[in-house]
Automatic annotation (TrEMBL):
Residues 47-286 form the Aminoglycoside phosphotransferase domain. SUPFAM superfamilies: Protein kinase-like (PK-like) (SSF56112). Gene3D superfamilies: 3.90.1200.10, Phosphorylase Kinase, domain 1. This is Phosphotransferase family protein.
Length: 364
């Protein structure tokens, strides 16, 4: 029996709408026909995909083939966030590399077509594992193998020479961590819906303990289990790494921090987004995950606590921005209610980690 047979595909989460989603199937079809290298059918159906809490995502289908369209959210958007050209370029550059990504079709920066810039890529025929219910359908052996594949994929990304894929001008690794702290402080200030003194405390502690960046490279920015598409018949095989909107050149250990922040363990606080997806037998511990990554790259990871604390802080700021858009009525889909409740627990976990850390300056 296929243990993933009942797991929804990424494209089937939540409610959907046909042609009433504001895209305008006729306009999109004309653009797609010009951008594609192969003929597109005369009738194109569009469907809003619920499930992502950031960029609205749509499935396009002509009855024979299917594509994915990504656009920025409506309404309040944090400065520098949701850059479609950035996500498109990263996917295009990495296609055919050691990092699995879908083929891109085209980028449209003319906002007259659907009211925002967008890009289109191939739809991957796989599944996404979002919750403990999803990963619970895997065997312990499959969970262990998937974790190993995830670590190997992340290490492969970080070993890609940016110049080899045309991304040598993708960002500035020097001073990356300091700029990240300033950026997320500004993001918080532009979207905060309520005062939280723990934000100021975390900012001060992180700024006082910024580690030296020793491993620059391509950073995904949001590497976690539900940003991967895996094969339905072999959930240990990753078909594609998705959601590259925060990718850049920087300190690659920030990706390890994000992965660990979302890596839930039994008996511990679960990240509200993944809600225990990896807190099941077969999945390695967080420490084992770090060890596997270190072994894959042949490096050491000093000051790992800093990266874990920063990851929780960053995710909390992102969720506050999503919460702000939701309260203004600018989110698409039905899975946003209560997302603001996720911010406090993440900030509290970050403060707890910082207070018990041996990293100089982080404990306060």
């Amino acid at each position: 029996m296929n243990p993933t047979a009942d797991v929804h595909t990424r494209q089937e989460y939540g409610s959907s709408a046909d042609s009433g989603d504001g895209l305008g199937a006729g306009r999109i079809r004309e653009w797609l026909a010009d951008a594609e290298t192969r003929p597109v059918g005369e009738e194109l159906r569009t469907r809003l995909i619920a499930g992502g809490r950031s960029n609205p995502t749509y499935e396009l289908s002509d009855g024979d083939r299917a594509w994915i369209l990504r656009r920025p959210p409506v309404g309040h958007v944090l400065p520098t966030a949701h850059d479609m050209s950035r996500e498109y370029r990263a996917l295009t550059a990495l296609y055919g590399s050691a990092v699995p990504v879908p083929r891109t079709v085209g980028l449209c920066e003319d906002t007259a077509l659907i009211g925002a810039p967008f890009y289109v890529m191939d739809k991957l025929d796989g599944i996404t594992l979002r919750t403990a219910e999803d990963t619970g359908r895997l065997t312990p052996t499959q969970r262990a193998a998937l974790a190993e594949t995830m670590v190997q994929t992340l290490a492969a990304l970080h070993e890609v020479d940016p110049a080899d894929v045309g991304l040598d001008d993708w960002g500035r690794p020097d001073g990356y961590l300091e700029r990240q702290l300033r950026r997320w402080q500004r993001q918080w200030e532009s979207s905060a819906t309520a005062p939280r003194p723990e934000v100021d405390e975390l900012q001060a502690r992180l700024a006082a303990s910024v580690p030296e960046s020793r491993y620059p490279g391509i950073v995904h920015g949001d590497f976690k289990i539900d940003n991967l598409m895996v094969a339905a018949d072999d959930p240990t095989h990753i078909l594609g790494v998705l959601d590259w909107e925060m990718s850049t050149l920087g300190d690659t250990l920030t990706d390890l921090g994000i992965l660990c922040s979302f890596w839930d363990q039994q008996g511990e606080f679960h990240n509200p987004i993944t809600a225990g997806a990896t807190a099941l037998p077969g999945f390695p511990s967080r420490d084992e995950l770090v060890h596997a990554y270190v072994q894959a790259r042949g490096i050491d990871v000093p000051d790992i606590d800093w990266y874990l604390v920063f990851a929780d802080f960053k995710i909390a700021v992102i969720l506050e921005g999503i919460h702000a858009r939701h309260t203004q009525g600018h989110t698409a889909g039905d899975d946003f209610t209560g997302i603001g409740d996720m911010v406090g627990p993440l900030l509290n976990r970050a403060l707890d980690r910082a207070s018990h850390s041996s990293v100089p300056g982080l404990a306060g």
